[in-house]
Amino acid sequence: MGKQRLENLSHGDVFAIMGAFFFREKVIMTLTHTSSSPRIGFVSLGCPKALVDSEHILSRLKAEGYDIAESYQGADLVVVNTCGFIDAAVAESLAAIGEALAENGKVIVTGCLGARNDGSFVREIHPRVLAVTGPHATDEVLQAIHAHLPRPHEPFVELIPPQGVKLTPRHYAYLKISEGCNHRCTFCIIPSLRGSLVSYPMGNVVNEAEKLLNAGVRELLVVSQDTGAYGADIRYRTGFHHGRPLKTHITTLTQELDALGRAHQAWVRLHYVYPYPHVDDLVALMRGAAESEGGLLPYLDMPLQHASPRILKAMQRPAAPEKVIDRIRAWRHALPQLTLRSTFIVGFPGETEDDFLTLLQFLEEAQLDRVGAFPYSPVNGAAANALPDALPEEIKQERLARFMETQAAISARRLQNKIGQTITVLVDHLAEAKQIKQGRKKTVIALARSAADAPEIDGLVQIADGRRLLPGMFVKVHIEAATEHDLIGHVGNQESEARD
Predict the structure, then answer these.
(1) Which of 236, 332, 406, 466 has a C-alpha 20 to 30 A away from that of 346?
(2) Residue 264 has what pLDDT?
């Protein structure tokens, strides 16, 4: 996935949109198998928030004694967790529902697409589905499953692991801290799909983090629609964890997660953080983190979307890019190793050439490390659809190409500065398909990520001598070369460390 963060992403690819990461994951896994247990097929689509919803549903199914089928043919019923944010994601979801109906015939639909028109949008296209629910609807999904495939008589609660069922590799996991969003950006329909901001109780979030870390997770990726607003909906009221009073606020939560990360020598990474004033406090917390010791990483995923004040106003986004530049400079002065990631939309209705040049100038001034971009496309139900002066597709694509070229050069320059350094990385997997014969020996390339790289959306660190490395292992790597997006190196002198 490392090469796709600046490409024109299309149907079936990874989408880096508004800081949410969309990907299709057809769940092929067997949690347990007995001949008498009813079997559920599962297809999970969408962003990490939706992935967490899928994990909750699968955990409940496993606790109730259901098996998870490896194929449509082996399933008694199929659940499809959908995405409905942009047209390509809608098409992907509808195709997945159609495939499940054709291959199995008994399908329950959940997720964001299910929330459209109270489920009638899906039913009009696929009237054979058994039930349709919206996102974050574990109870409703289980009720629908019970109605069409009764639960086993004896649930096997002991079969569910303490951290629940996870769809990510065992060494990293997404930690969702809230649902919904209070912003009303004109290009976005997430509030209509997932509702306004609802923060999860502080104690529940910290307990979930503890369970994940105790289960061997080496990296927690904190996600939500608006991470920096955590607690705003409940006026930051006091929560409790093990009897300790804790303010329900992102700064307090981050302090708790940082302490847990250090105690377990695990990374904590923040995603989708608007540049609120209190982000300065988060950056200050990052200053105390050492990547080799775990804790809060010097990494901010900050969705900015554009840099022209006129376009930002049309988007109903904060319109003070010059202040953002000043804050970026201040953050980097205080924390030179800080990695900044953002996403942008090009070709928004009414965007002039001058607006676009303002965006390119912003890129040059901001010198962001990781950037995702996509051309504007109308989303059913978005207020931006009514804006005048929609741009032709060829202009959108031409601007996207120029944007990509500008940012690729910035990325390449910044990565070149890391050549000669020795950095800590987290191994994701071994690239067995890339074995290179060298005489009688083979070189196995390990693919890892540095503190600057989130999974699926950022770059990779390629380790040539990776034969003895394992996924979930932290290792020191000496950087020898760099491309536009990735680093290349070899294992340093310090011994690697893996968690059993």
Answers:
(1) 332
(2) 94
Q: Alpha-carbon distance 242 to 313, whole Å?
A: 44
Summarised one tens digit per residue, pLDDT across range 4-28 is 333 333 322 322 233 333 333 443 3
Torsion of CA 321, 326, 328, 329, to 10 degrees: 150
The alpha carbon of residue 354 and the mean position of all alpha carbons in its chain are separated, in whole angstroms, by 32
Average pLDDT, the chain: 85
pLDDT of residue 11: 26
44 contact partners, CB below 8 Å, separation of at least 6: 25, 26, 27, 50, 51, 54, 81, 167
- Encode 341-371: b = buried (16+ Cβ within 10 Å), e = exposed: bbbbbbbbbebeeebbebbbebbeebbbbbb
CA pair distance 45, 114, nearest whole angstrom: 12
Give the residue among 155, 190, 174 at the shortest CA–CA distance from 223: 174
217 three-class SS? coil
Burial 444-466 (b: 16+ CB within 10 A, else e): bbbbbbbbbbbbbbbbbbbbbeb
Which element (helix H / strand E) includes 262?
helix 250-264
Do 130 and 148 form a contact (C-beta atoms < 8 A)? yes
Of 491, 492, 423, the C-alpha closest to 459 is: 423
> What is this structure's pTM?
0.72
Q: What is the sign, positive or negative, of the torsion defined by CA atoms of 122, 124, 126, 131?
A: positive
Among all chains, which residue has been given the structure tokens 């690697």? 496
Write the CB contacts of 408 (distance below 8 Å, at least 6 apart in sequence): 6, 484, 485
| For the chain, counts of helices (H) and of strands (E) | 12, 22
d(CA 90, CA 100): 15
- Answer whether residue 185 shows pLDDT above 60: yes
Q: If you ran DSSP here, which 8-state letter would residue 112 be given?
A: G
- The 10s digit of each residue's pLDDT in 64-76 is 889 999 889 899 9
Q: Can you tell me the distance from the alpha carbon of 339 to that of 242, in angstroms, rounded to the nearest whole number?
A: 33
Taking the CA atoms of 136, 139, 141 and 142 in sequence, report the sign of the dihedral they define: positive
CA distance 246 to 237: 8
The pLDDT, as a whole number, for residue 19 is 31
**Which two tokens mark 173?**
């996991």
Q: Are 294 and 264 in contact (CB under 8 A)?
A: yes
136/140 Cα distance (integer angstroms): 9
